[in-house]
Amino acid sequence: MVSVKSLLLATMATAAYAAPRCVKSMPAPPKTGGTKELADPAPGLVLKKIALGYGIQNYTCADESSTSVSASGAVAVLYDVTAYHPATAKTGLTKPEWEKLPESALRSASFPLNKLPGSEYNADPAQPFPAPPEDMATFSGGPGLLKFLGHHYFDATGTPMFDLSAVGLKASVVKLDGVEAPKDAYEGPMGTGAVAWLQLVESKMGLSKGLSEVYRVITAGGAPEACSVAGKGDQSVPYATFYYFY
Ligand SMILES: *[C@@H]1O[C@H](CO)[C@@H](O)[C@H](O)[C@H]1NC(C)=O
């Protein structure tokens, strides 16, 4: 079996060869084009994987007159899209196709979580993820079947976790910075807007494996409904995004 490392090295060598005038052979996270941008990853870090994440963002309202919605977690399935990055020779998508992938998935791919009976987007708290893990079937605007990479969830301490179980990588993270998604980002099926782009860094809780930084970029959907609309209690809002793992 070919190791992940040698595969990545091969991919990067190919990408560098295909773009000889490009100084950076490893893709940096994309920029929003807004007034403030996320900083690049720390020097020396290597891009290990890019995932398409599809799932829900959770929020809570203390009551319906509350002006602030608080974020309470997220659950998403991660699919490996590393080979579809535009810098990859042969398998890379065009830049517009790539940038539309989270939106296309959110519009057209089937919801990847086990739903609570009768709900549209609520995941089953007892078992949100289908078992055994499923690949994402071909969807309109997508490059074909997407391989299962892992799970994103919040652990018992409320810390975001990315468990890339298919390749043995893990990231337990805290938020370092966030910037608004571009105005033209897809607002999602609930019409609430796209969640912020984030730079997440290793939590120093000793739970990560082989990863130090995670970027959430090119977000689609996931922003909350106002408490006046959602009412008191929890809401789950569907979203899709790219996660870049360093
Ligand atoms: C998010 O809400 C869903 C219900 O839609 C629930 O199953 C899940 O446990 C919640 N997860 C977190 C981390 O808040």
TrEMBL record:
Residues 1-18 form the signal peptide. It holds the Pfam family DUF3455. The keyword Signal applies. InterPro entries: DUF3455. Keywords: Signal. Transmembrane segments: none annotated. This is Malate dehydrogenase. It comes from Cladorrhinum samala. The lineage of its organism: Eukaryota, Fungi, Dikarya, Ascomycota, Pezizomycotina.
